[in-house]
């Protein structure tokens, strides 16, 4: 795949390339019934890739995910292997206090709701949207309990797995924010794309040096997705080369 390369070595993705990558990604998703689809915005040529996923929080964190050792093992075999680059390149996050363990420490209805969420499935809606400003894909998402109550930013932070959270608190990330969806005009959480070109540069450069094709969206999503509970099946790794678009 041909990408725009700046003098500093960063790579940028054009909108047409983004759509090609999404089309190939969805093609593989359909083969394995992974739930991704493309949605066009009514009255516009623009669209986004989306998936709805239900996740049951693990007891090992207040609202956390699977066991840390399991995730570490899976990350060793992940599609991209660039998570460390992300953690090192992103700017500081303000640490958010987590609720105290145990119902006896809860003092108001809000805290009760947050603790009870720990045992309930959470509905995640992920949107992959192209940003013309950053020339990169952006991950928008929202989450709610089965009764429809949306999760707060604090709860979203608590949903970050311990394996990531500990590292994020050491050199962390201020990029999980809530803002308006650029295509739908609705409030969503978003992983800010300011560092995307930087942490994707070595991934793309390595692929080009080895004369391998790479699906930018797949490689990028394998890096940022796990931070908010979105893990790609390992089979996407081999599909990246098989389905990557050719240069224009």
Question: Can you walk me through this structure?
Answer:
The chain is α+β, with helices and mostly antiparallel strands. The protein has one domain. The protein contains 9 helices and 8 strands. It has helices at 15-32, 68-76, 83-89, 109-116, 153-158, 162-170, 196-209, 216-224, 235-243; strands at residues 4-5, 11-12, 37-40, 47-55, 122-131, 136-145, 176-180, 187-191. The strands form 2 sheets. Strands 3-4-5-6-8-7 form a 6-stranded antiparallel beta sheet. The longest helix has 18 residues, at 15-32. Residues 59-83, 85-107 and 243-248 have low confidence and may be disordered.
Helices and strands, in order, run as: EEHEEHHHEEHHEEHHH
Morphology call: globular
| Mean pLDDT metric | 75
Count of helical stretches = 9
Percentage of residues assigned to helices: 25-40%
Structural class: alpha+beta
What does the radius of gyration come to? 18 Å
Number of strands: 8
Number of domains: 1
> How many strands, what sense, and barrel or not for the largest sheet?
6 strands, antiparallel
Strand content: 15-25%
What distinguishing features does this structure have?
disordered C terminus, single chain, globular, 6-stranded antiparallel beta sheet, 19% strand
List the helices and strands and how they pair.
Elements (H helix, E strand, L loop, with lengths): L3 E2 L5 E2 L2 H18 L4 E4 L6 E9 L12 H9 L6 H7 L19 H8 L5 E10 L4 E10 L7 H6 L3 H9 L5 E5 L6 E5 L4 H14 L6 H9 L10 H9 L5
Antiparallel strand pairs: 1-2, 3-4, 4-5, 5-6, 6-8, 7-8
């Amino acid at each position: 795949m041909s990408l725009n390369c700046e003098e500093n070595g960063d790579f940028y993705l054009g909108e047409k390339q983004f759509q090609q990558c999404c089309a190939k990604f969805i093609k593989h998703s359909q083969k394995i019934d992974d739930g991704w689809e493309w949605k066009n915005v009514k009255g516009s040529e623009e669209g986004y890739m989306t998936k709805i996923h239900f996740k049951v929080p693990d007891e090992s964190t207040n609202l956390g995910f699977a066991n840390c050792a399991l995730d570490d093992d899976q990350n060793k075999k992940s599609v991209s292997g660039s998570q460390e680059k992300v953690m090192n390149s992103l700017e500081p996050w303000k640490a958010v206090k987590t609720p105290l363990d145990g119902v006896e420490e809860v003092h108001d209805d809000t805290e009760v709701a947050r603790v009870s969420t720990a045992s309930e499935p959470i509905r995640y809606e992920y949107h992959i949207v192209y940003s013309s400003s950053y020339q990169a894909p952006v991950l928008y998402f929202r989450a709610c309990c089965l009764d429809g109550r949306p999760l707060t930013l604090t709860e979203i932070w608590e949903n970050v797995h311990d394996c990531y959270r500990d590292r994020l608190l050491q050199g962390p990330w201020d990029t999980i924010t809530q803002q308006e969806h650029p295509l739908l005009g609705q409030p969503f959480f978003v992983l800010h794309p300011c560092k995307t070109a930087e942490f994707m540069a070595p991934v793309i450069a390595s692929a080009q040096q080895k004369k391998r094709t790479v699906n930018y969206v797949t490689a990028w999503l394998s890096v940022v997705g796990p931070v908010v509970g979105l893990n790609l099946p390992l089979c996407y790794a081999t599909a990246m080369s098989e389905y990557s678009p050719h240069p224009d």
